[in-house]
Amino acid sequence: MKRREFVKSSALATLPLLLKGCNWIKPKAQYPVHIYSDAKTGHLVYENSKFTQVNINSIETLVVGGGIAGLAAASKLQGTDYLLCELSEELGGTSSAYRSEGLLFSQGAHYDLSYPSNYGSEVLQFLEELSIIKYQSWNGRWSFTDDQYLIAHRRKNQCYDNGEFRKDVLAESPLKNDFLNLIRTYKNEMLLPTRFIPEKHRHLNEITFLDFLNTRLELTSEFIKGLDYHMKDDYGSDAATVSALAGIHYFACRPYYDEVVELFSPPEGNNYFIKKMSDKLNNDQVLTQHLVKKINETTDGFKVEIADIANQQVKVVNTKKIIYAGQKHALKYIYPPGYELFTDNNIAPWMVVNVVIKNELEKIGYWQNEMLTDDTTFLGFVDSDTQHSGSAYRVLTGYYCLPPSSREDLINVEENKATIAEMTADHMSDYFKEDIQSLIERVDIKVMGHAMPIPKPGYLFNDKNSLSQNPNIRYAGVDNGRLPLLFEALDSGLNSALH
Fold first, then answer.
1. Which long-range contacts (CB under 8 A, 24 or more apart) does 20-25 make?
2. DSSP conformation letters of 217-256
3. How many Å apart are CA 435 and CA 266, to the nearest integer?
């Protein structure tokens, strides 16, 4: 198939449609494409009964999951008898990263913003202790200490919509002005963590964002398209699905449209926070490639089976307390009484595609390149040109937010990896108005089947720990009634270690 013929045919396909089958004509990619996913490893361990069983010493606390929440909990437990287990080879979860030619690149959550002083003091103090943030008395905000990772305001973002460029996803219009005036009525009321949001606003958690806006504004289809993009970007679904409280919080938690808000984005993304926390931990108490596969209650705690993937062993440990910061869908097999608490969760799958190109593209880079295309699952890409210079290559990190219905189709990613890589590069070529295929050195695809909890009506403030029949197992993570944000994950982990 000729190059332009492929471009024409692939442009007709969206990623969800492509993943439905394996019969697409394969492009003739001249570069390697790598897939990163824990799914196969997890399934292998569940099915494998040949691992030898060994007993290890009893511990006071077991932390399940080495993402933001799990590491925050472990940090709070420093100096105590605990053990943290993480399935992957590296810590990070949805804030993972990979190394290429000496540099780290994000495979998940990739930025944070300076914090107002009225945010939760526990998390602010924790980040200050890690030397991540510092208080600026002159503006009443917490800023980042490593200011070399701040993105220049003039290069923060650019939106591509049907071949045209503008500054923001929401185009300038009287409707946008009315919308922002409505949002401003919630100034200083949309706090983090969300458990501190005033009771008077909690009724907004019971209706959708779109329903809330429709009773107050005359919305257009174009404006809704922009709102849907924003909601998918942070919350995994559209404005007709997420709650009004989640939608309002997105726009009102910081003064985005009235002030310049510092944007912090190291090349490795939020894995920067992972590294800061893990560097403070005792390596002997943190085990990667260890899957907690079975939790059984005992008279004085829990008996836990842990699969050591590298050594093909099942380690059995007794523990008095468990902090479960892993993905809650896995509880179906690990601890069914806990799984029953989370069956109403809706989780959006994500795919992150790192396209590594020779640093020969002359087009100026913007950090966030938002793209409104026919494939509404493709949200655009981050350009490493804004994060470092002097490198022989440039990394364009594309993001796909998929509907929950596409999760089962992710088994076809391996078969279609070359097509996914080329389709993603075609989107980027459209943006630059220049074919980048000949510049590509490699493509790395990170598949996250359970990446982001969707904050639908009724989701927030629904902490399942209040419903758990066993107080010695605590559930942490943003998939426990929290917005899928870094600050929320940190607060959830810290809070779980205190109980």
1. 20/409, 20/412, 21/412, 22/412, 22/415, 22/416, 24/416, 24/419, 25/1
2. S---HHHHHHHHHHHHHHHSS-TTTSBHHHHHHHHHSS-T
3. 27
459 to 24, 231, 249, 297, 474: CA distances (angstroms): 38, 15, 14, 28, 18
> What is the reported pLDDT for 350?
97
Closest CA to 25 of 418, 442, 429: 418
Q: What angle do CA 301, 306, 312 make, to 5 degrees?
A: 155
Q: How confident is the model at residue 5 (pLDDT cuts 50, 70, 90)?
A: very low
Domain map of the chain by residue range?
Answer: 3-30+348-451, 41-89+269-345+464-497, 168-264
List the beta bridge partners of residue 322. 62, 473
Report residue 231 as tokens: 């909601």
Whether 8 has a pLDDT exceeding 50, the answer reads: no
CA atoms within 13 A on the CB side of 359: 13
Q: Which residue in this structure is represented by tokens 């810590």?
A: 91
Q: Just give the CATH number of 168-264.
A: 1.10.405
* Phi, psi torsion values for 17, nearest 5 degrees: -70, -40
| pLDDT at residue 27, rounded to an integer | 74
At residue 225, φ and ψ (nearest 5 deg) are: -60, -40
- Topology of domain 41-89+269-345+464-497, CATH: FAD/NAD(P)-binding domain (3.50.50)
- Residue 203 CB contacts under 8 Å (≥ 6 apart), including other chains: none
Q: Output the pTM of the full model.
A: 0.95
